Fold:
Amino acid sequence: MSAAVDTNASYLTATRGWKSWAYTLDHKRIGMMYLFGILGALLLGGAFALLVRMELWSPGQTIAGKDAYNKFFTLHGAVMVFLVIIPGLPAALGNMILPIQLGAPDVAFPKLNLTSFYLWVIGALLLLVAVFTGGLDTGWTFYTPYSLQSQTAVIPAVLGAFVLGFSSIFTGLNFLVTIHKFRPKAMGWFQMPLNLWALYSTALMQVLATPVLGITLLLLFVERFMHIGIFDPNLGGDPVLFQHFFWFYSHPAVYIMIVPAMGVISEITTTFSRKPIFGYRFIAYSSIALALFSFLVWGHHMFVSGQSKLANMVFSALTFSVGIPSAIKVFNWVSTLYKGDIRLQTPMLYALSFLIMFTIGGLTGIFLAILSIDVQLHDTYFVVAHFHYVMMGSTLVAFVAALHYWWPKVTGKMYPERPAQVAAVGVFIGFNLTFLPQFVMGSRGMPRRYWDYDPEFQIFHRLSTVGAFLLGLSLFGVVCYLMWSLKYGTKAPQNPWGGTTLEWDAPTPPTVFNFPEPPEIHELYNYDDLEELPEGGWVRKPSTGAKSSSGH
Amino acid sequence: MSQPSHDDHHDDHGHQSRFIQHHYDDAQHQFDSGKLGIWFFLVQEILFFSALFVAYILYRHHHPEIYAYAHHYLDVKWGAINTAVLIVSSLSAAWAVRCAQLAQRRGLIACLVITIVCALGFLGIKTVEYSHKVHEHILWGKYFDPCVASAGNHLLNKGNNCPGVKTSVVWDGKAGKAKSGCLEGDYDQRPAEPGIQGKCEVVEVVGANRRPIEACEEAPGKSGGHGKPAKFPCYELALNPHVCPAGPAAMVLYGDHGHHGGAIEVKCEAVPAPAAPADAFADPTHAPSTGERTFAQQKPKSKHELAHEFASGPPPEHTNMFFSIYFAMTGLHGIHVLVGVFVFIWLLWRAIRGDFTPDYFGPVDYAALYWHLVDLIWIFLFPLLYLIH
Ligand code: HEM
Ligand SMILES: [Cu+2]
Structure:
């Protein structure tokens, strides 16, 4: 960066022109670019979801045939998982917030950060190539042997997911090093915001699990055009090995999705309850516990793939144990709310939705971990509902919560509160209307990934489709008013919610290196230090700065 | 008042090296961050390779016979040389770091050059090995088709050296018979002794010219049947009936001169058939499907011969999987070596430019760490693939 840049100017305006964005090394700008890319992908994935729901409006063919249907659900899943949910919280919002929460000027490796972003772009383009050159019908899971035979665009899709994997690995690596090496001396591990614990745990999983997906997809890719045979039963290979490798990554991947969401929810529940987080250490440790456990349970996706009984039992038992750290967090959040001074602003509405939906999603996961029950429920809509409660009802909702929570900070503009609250309620109702009926029809035997069904399921499918449109509409509304606010929103105060973490001590929007002066480290989650201004926003009480920081 | 450890980032620290980026406190901070980063990267690399090791272990556990058989196709000599080459390069890479730390620019350049040369040497040797395999169609998965280079039997006995083989049997794996080369139809018995003196007449036809080709003889002075043929062109008979179920194959060996590119005609005289079945290890799926064919068996085989025949007999079913794993592992490793070459060339360029100083030598250190890992992976691959017993 040239010396002419005024580093005390807002990062948004310090330099201008598209090149200043395309070549930027500023983590906030990179996060911003991710955010826009991810919102675009969300629209694409959402469009496919609505196509799926439209096809299922009535039994038999509704809008397209079975082959098209297979492509709809596959592309919906692949786009949502690889382009939206996995990078959403870490790469977009984490990128913007993590260094600021550390009081650091940037991530450890800004160039690598930009590389990650461009890898995401390349991956997204490859997936688009797949969309436009015959689509993809293997399911987002790419199971062999079908993925070796499918006539659709498996090769670009697999390459895309491979590249996206490296984008994710490099982001994780960057965050790990940043948290290790850029934590101020005054901020011990246990003075870190819980969001950072969550991002740390996520980054660990990104670095440790994603390479296995990488090699698996690479082998699949090589298999497709060189017939290397490792997963091909015709050549003596083992297709089930693919499932093992795939889930060795993809189970941790579901925690890559949920753990950063948990971090966000920890921040929001305490801020909007005006109460210190309950059980800080438990939440911090349980993030790490989830990261570790997540590597030991992949077999629960393969209970009916011919695993040995012993393996099934071990995986089942280990899966139950994952419920423990998850439940610890839920109890802590609920205890944080208890007797809090709860403010129902939009981020909090989403956080409360999260609490309800994550509880449902997590508990139904425990049902599925029971061997005898999973034999019945595997590959039914019950599983679909389970993972949507956790992936969409929890992670995506937390993503939207975080978007509203930090939007004023990173854009300098307030979003319009009233429409946002309406949209939040719309998301909640739409979501539950979409997915609660799926539990019912799943437990009654409606298989997943089918384009046709018995008429007895029609009522559930119709409810689900109506819910999906409400949900889609609400989210579309969110995107619209956020974009609107970029131009017309009111100017955001430095600390609109009265948060205690360091990003609220940074200017709004932050300067090029986040802080004009190195920030003071205050006691975390101590809301007594802050007072609300009549014109909106919060400031530290004048007397408290020195007192609280001497507490370390 | 508590202050973050990194001090004011946007003023000038008076850094020694211009390569210290502004968001680091100082040279040490940058170095430490990079070091931690490269360690995480190496962990990532290990996991990247791990799936292949798991695949190796699983298939070896389920099909030990494939590994016992197939590793004979690999040449321990080349593997061992490559191991040595890589170890030397690791040493020179480590030395390069030391030189960079001590500001010994010439030493650094020398060490980097040695490392690059060794890495290229490794790749060169790997290319030699691969091209043998390509030539002999000892390839992965679907393309594993060793009959192509005549019988595996012969090749194995010869330690996998096929000097001067230019024309060989072309085996159609799908059709289950030779496209050319394997003798079909009128030849259904094995000559009395494997090897050179089959009772055959082999003629090369170029236009109207018919040139007889004689059976190969060992060049005098070479022992153990491993030498080059004394005369070119000459033919040998490949006798493994399991890889060439349609009958033994004539493999014509050419010298550098004398290859006229003609068609090969082979006529062989039947030898009286002995009674004993050839091979206790015969695999029905590879046995000839038509006609009855028995093979000479002069005296009962010794245990040693039997073991040998096992190793050199019919490939067990799905021997291709060994080569799938072999090519996947060594290929991925080779790509890493190639990346290393580029990295070291880049470092060499920077070293010549004089970028590295005692307070800025991180890239050399990180590249060396990466290189040690690449070396280490080979040190696992070599015994796992080449030294199976
Ligand atoms: C309490 C924690 C959880 C437990 C015990 C649990 C358990 C399970 C089990 C046993 C299955 C396999 C069902 C089957 O295929 O028959 C499953 C599927 C799934 N779970 Fe969870 N889960 C939990 C949390 C999560 C979270 C947090 C996410 C994502 C954010 C998630 C995403 C998924 C997905 C995507 C699938 C299905 C993948 C597919 O087949 O396409 N789960 N879960
Ligand atoms: Cu799972």
Remarks:
- The helical segments of chain B are 27-62, 64-70, 76-101, 105-136, 152-157, 303-312, 320-353, 362-386.
- Residues 145-316 of chain B form one domain.
- The mean pLDDT of chain B is 70.
